[in-house]
Amino acid sequence: MQASRPCGRRQRKRKVAKWPTNQIVVTELTVDGMPTEKKAVTRMRKLAGLIARQRLSLLMVSFDDLIDNEKEQLFNECVQPHLEFSSELRAKVLKVMMRIVNKSWRTFKSELVCLFVRAGSDATVKHPFIPRHVSEDFV
């Protein structure tokens, strides 16, 4: 059975996620370490996905291979320019952000295996940011 769509509306194709150009200042966190503002939560998840796909190596065996300095460097280079946190919130957000990045990274690797490796197709066509040699080693 096919899902029904409202008459006259076409489903838009999903756009490629791009790095944001502006900065959102976060002043409050919820109990679980996420920002209270919806825009900031959306930005945080988007950044986690971008970091997982474009900044982390597919050849890492485990996310735990990253040392704390590398995690802080990722946070400083990829999150801080787009989401600004006060020094009191930073430690809590760093831990939460790395948990989200870890989940996104594992999901991305799993999808690559399911959609490209098992199918025998080239992942670099859909994901041009993956270097050819890394893709070959990953397969």
Question: What features would you describe in this structure?
Answer:
Helix 1 packs across helix 3. Helices cover 51% and strands 4% of the residues. Strands 1-2 form a two-stranded parallel ribbon. With 139 residues, it is mainly α. The protein has five helices and two strands. It has a domain at 24-104. The mean pLDDT is 85. It has helices spanning 38-54, 68-79, 87-117, 123-126, 132-138; strands at 24-26, 83-85. The N and C termini lie far apart (36 Å).
Features:
mainly alpha, two-stranded parallel sheet, 51% helix, single chain, 139 residues
Please write the string of helix (H) and strand (E) elements.
EHHEHHH
Q: Tally of extended strands?
A: 2
Beta percentage is: under 5%
Termini gap? 36 Å
Mean pLDDT: 85
Regions with little confidence, pLDDT below 50 for 5+ residues: none
Anisotropy-based shape:
globular
Number of helices: 5
Gyration radius (Cα, Å) is 17 Å
Q: Report the structural category.
A: mainly alpha
Strand order across the biggest sheet?
Answer: 1-2
Outline the biggest β-sheet: 2 strands, parallel
Share of residues in helices: 40-55%
Topology:
Blueprint: E1 24-26, H1 38-54, H2 68-79, E2 83-85, H3 87-117, H4 123-126, H5 132-138
Parallel strand pairs: 1-2
Quick structural gist:
With 139 residues, the protein is mainly alpha-helical. It has helices spanning 38-54, 68-79, 87-117, 123-126, 132-138; strands spanning 24-26, 83-85. Helix content is 51%, strand content 4%.
